Amino acid sequence: MAIELTVSPDLGTVLRIGALTCDVSRVVEHDAGLAESIGQIERMARSGESVDVGPARQLYRSIGLDPTKTRPASEALLRRVRRGDSFPRINTLVDICNWCSLEFQLPYGLYDLDQVEPPVTVRRGREGEAYAGIRKDEVHLNGRLTLADARGPFGNPSSDSARTMVTTSARRLLVVVFGPATILTAAMSRILDITASRCVRFAGGVETWRWVE
Question: pLDDT per residue over 192-203, tens digit each?
Answer without folding.
Answer: 999 999 999 999
